[in-house]
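Tip: read the tokens left to right.
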């Protein structure tokens, strides 16, 4: 009798195991793997809802002459960021989305680069990079610069990649797109929180 009960119990356990594995897989969001090993799938699916959602980021510098304004629009393959900078020193300046949504000068409270998946630093179009890595804005001799790129991996609607409510910062120097944090771009010189357009 004991062996019969034991066999029945094992059979019941084996029957439940595949379902338990399936349930575990269902509980994990698809295409949002964490860590460098799963980095290639951390935003592979195109956005199908919330297309056209808009947000703004108005950056102000510790120097009042430094200003920047960015418009963000959700597209199927990422967020289209268009913006203009004025009053900056000529050359390339890193542009970054930060983990926090705080922008009090001298901008030491913005937190690290937005990087929930803990992947290596890079710049678009690198396939693997922190979500907050946006690349550089090139500033001309007159102190003005223009930025216009569709940035994948971030979103205005997807909670796994949401940048609304986070700070966008302009850095003091060029981001070389490879040196690990804090990188080569220096400290933030202007900051603004990303907010949904009304």
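Filled-in amino acids:
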């Amino acid at each position: 009798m004991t062996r019969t009960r034991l066999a029945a119990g094992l059979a019941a356990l084996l029957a439940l195991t595949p379902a338990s594995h399936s349930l575990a897989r269902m509980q994990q969001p698809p295409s949002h793997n964490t860590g460098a090993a799963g980095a290639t799938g951390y935003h592979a699916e195109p956005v199908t809802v919330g297309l056209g959602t808009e947000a703004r980021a108005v950056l102000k510098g510790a120097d009042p002459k430094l200003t920047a304004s960015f418009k963000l629009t959700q597209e199927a393959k990422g967020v289209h960021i268009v913006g203009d900078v004025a009053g900056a020193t000529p050359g390339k300046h890193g542009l970054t989305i930060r983990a926090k949504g705080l922008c009090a000068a001298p901008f030491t409270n913005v937190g690290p680069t937005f990087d929930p998946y803990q992947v290596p630093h890079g710049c678009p179009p690198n396939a693997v990079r922190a979500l907050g890595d946006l690349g550089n804005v090139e500033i001309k001799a007159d102190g003005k610069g223009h930025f216009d790129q569709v940035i994948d991996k971030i979103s205005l609607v997807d909670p796994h990649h949401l940048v609304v409510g986070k700070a966008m910062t302009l850095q003091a120097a060029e981001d070389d797109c490879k040196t690990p944090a804090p990188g080569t771009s220096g400290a933030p010189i202007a900051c603004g929180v990303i907010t949904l357009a009304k």
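The chain has two domains: 2-30, 54-196. The longest strand covers residues 67-75.
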